[in-house]
Amino acid sequence: MSRLDNRDLLHTAERAARAGAAALSPFRLQREALRVDIKQTNDFVTAADLASERAVAQIIASDWPTHRILGEELSSGVALGSEPTWVVDPLDGTTNFIHGFPNYCVSVACVVDGEVVAGVVLDPTRDECFAARRGGGAWLGGTQLHVTDAPGLDHTLIGTGFPFRYLDRLESYLGSFRQIAQRAAGIRRPGSAALDLASVAAGRFDGFWEEGLGAWDIAAGTLLIEEAGGLITDFRGGRGFLQDGTVIAGGAAVHRELLEIVARYQLDR
Ligand code: IPD
Ligand code: CA
Ligand code: CA
């Protein structure tokens, strides 16, 4: 393969994500083989993360030998520059996986000139493959995905992630949580940011906000949101999310209200 066509990139992303999921599978049944290591406070890596990342990287390298790979576990130091770069979270939801809580995924995205052009979030627990390429829509199998058109936060279901690794952020987070909880019908914290973004793209969540994320957590999900007609920004309302790790996503009205609240409470950094 040489010419960059988003369709080819998406094809690779899907095959790579499936290879990652296949590598995770044996560990589901033999949790004692996981070998859990602690990277930092509440941040774990297991033999399953590593096996998945190797499987994903193998597919990418054989399809696109000149491309770079930014993978959470094996190549997290790779910078996002102008060259085509694959951004991989081989297991998003490691803590869930360790505990046998069935909510995790493999996330694979291709970034060209700083923009995500193809991305897949694969949920092996439900056999759901969320896929998008820039300009081609977001899809779950044969179903095109659309964010909801909720006119505001009232009656919505909102996803989030807690700042459990940066507890100094907890107070400001709880400030926005309190405000959002008074408006939304419910707030969920399933534990896989990539799947949370896929849930917004699929209209299962009306919106989502979280900070402290890595590019690998969100790269594929950001494209799913945009191709599903939604808005995704960082906490300042800009497009710096891959670098700054803050995200707010949703349909236009929900995004606007979330941004307003989050900016009030969580921009005190
Ligand atoms: C984590 C999950 C979680 C989010 C964390 C991420 P990991 O990814 O996406 O939902 O709250 O910030 O680091 O460590 O399971 O790949
Ligand atoms: Ca992750
Ligand atoms: Ca991970």
What features would you describe in this structure?
The protein has 269 residues and is of the alpha+beta class. The chain is 37% helix and 24% strand. It has a seven-stranded mixed sheet with strand order 3-4-5-6-7-8-9, with helices on both faces. Strands 11-10-12-14-13 form a five-stranded mixed sheet, sandwiched between helices. It has a two-stranded antiparallel sheet with strand order 1-2. The longest helix is centred in the N-terminal third of the chain and has 24 residues, at 6-29. The chain starts with 5 loop residues before the first helix and ends with a helix.
Count up the helices. Answer: 8
Order of helices and strands: HEEHEEHEEEEEEHEHEHEHEH
What percent strand? 15-25%
Radius of gyration in whole Å, from Cα?
17 Å
Gross morphology is globular
The description of the largest β-sheet is: 7 strands, mixed
Strand order in the sheet with the most strands: 3-4-5-6-7-8-9
Q: What's the N-to-C terminus distance?
A: 45 Å
Determine the oligomeric state from the structure. Answer: single chain
In percent, how helical is the residue content? 25-40%
Uncertain spans: none
Mean pLDDT: 94
Kindly name the structural category. alpha+beta
Extended strand count: 14
Hetero groups in this structure are: D-MYO-inositol-1-phosphate, calcium ion
